[in-house]
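Lecture notes, continued. The same structure-token format from the folding unit now serves as the input rather than the output. Read the line below as a description of shape only.
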């Protein structure tokens, strides 16, 4: 867990330094990295991890509840952004992907191993694969296509953009129908290593975009400004989402503790890739990722230290 936190922080710092030194060159590099994440790395990870998944009926309720909490927070994000804050569509979409796409893989899995032990890693992976991955590829990309400034005009054009810029969805469908021999254990192990390796690239892009916003508007470099959209994303992602999961677990069917923790995970780097591809408000996404990651890492460290006393 400490290694994850330090690696993420180092990647952000390197991104900040790169933008200071190379400017547009660093921005161009971060954009290419996000393209690689969206069009190459994520599809490969999705295919080999989903096709290897083996579900049991005992996990079904938790998975359904996971989808429910995402639908609730995405709906609330739209309502607050559109009706209360009256934001431009690109800004409302940015809040929606920030709360709908969570870092249940690179951050969530090691955090659960730290808090609950290695025996719970399988549950963490299951949640990441069955909840976060499909919601990101279906819901996240759909939000980008519907609210982004680079998705075209009109429903037909935006629908076409959703499919043409979403190769990971094809990988997800292929993983569901593919025979097991197409996903040997060694391929899944490589895919997991790839998922871990690509996450710092996303945090590098976070650092670059933090500096880009500083240059354009004179805002603080770090921490990012706690604007109303960013605060909205933090409350929905870190409080409301796990609250919905906890309520359903308490009053309907009890779910594994790992699922409760995953429900309250920080905003995911995938949101940055979606925002970049479709033209959502990057300042909101970057702020939500930076603040929520810091809060989750600090909270988990406090809990872990308290448990060791």
């Amino acid at each position: 867990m400490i290694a994850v936190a330090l690696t993420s922080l180092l990647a952000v710092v390197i991104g900040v330094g790169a933008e200071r030194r190379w400017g547009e060159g660093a921005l161009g590099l971060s954009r290419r990295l996000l393209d690689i994440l969206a069009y190459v790395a994520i599809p490969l990870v999705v295919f080999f991890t989903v096709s290897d998944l083996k579900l049991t009926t005992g996990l079904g309720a938790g998975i359904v509840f996971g989808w429910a909490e995402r639908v609730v927070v995405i709906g609330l994000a739209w309502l607050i952004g559109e009706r209360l804050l009256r934001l431009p569509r690109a800004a409302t979409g940015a809040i929606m992907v920030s709360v709908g796409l969570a870092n249940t893989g690179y951050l969530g899995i090691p955090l659960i191993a730290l808090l609950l032990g290695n025996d719970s890693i399988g549950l963490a992976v299951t949640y990441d694969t069955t909840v976060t991955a499909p919601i990101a590829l279906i819901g996240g990309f759909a939000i980008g296509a519907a609210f982004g400034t680079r998705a075209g005009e009109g429903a037909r054009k935006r629908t076409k953009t959703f499919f043409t810029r979403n190769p990971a969805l094809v990988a997800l469908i292929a993983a569901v129908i593919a025979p097991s021999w197409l996903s040997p254990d060694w391929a899944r192990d490589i895919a997991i290593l790839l998922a871990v390796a690509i996450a710092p690239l996303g945090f590098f892009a976070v650092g670059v975009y933090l500096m880009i916003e500083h240059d354009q508007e004179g805002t603080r470099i770090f921490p990012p400004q706690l604007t109303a959209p960013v605060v909205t994303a933090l409350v929905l992602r870190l409080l409301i989402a796990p609250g919905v999961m906890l309520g359903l677990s308490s009053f309907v069917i009890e779910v594994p503790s790992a699922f409760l923790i995953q429900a309250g995970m920080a905003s995911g780097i995938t949101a940055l890739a979606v925002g970049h591809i479709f033209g959502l408000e990057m300042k909101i996404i970057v702020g939500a990722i930076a603040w929520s990651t810091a809060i989750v890492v600090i909270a988990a460290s406090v809990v872990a230290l308290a448990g060791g006393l």
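Point for the exam: Residues 2-308 form a domain with the Na+/H+ antiporter like fold fold (CATH 1.20.1530.20).
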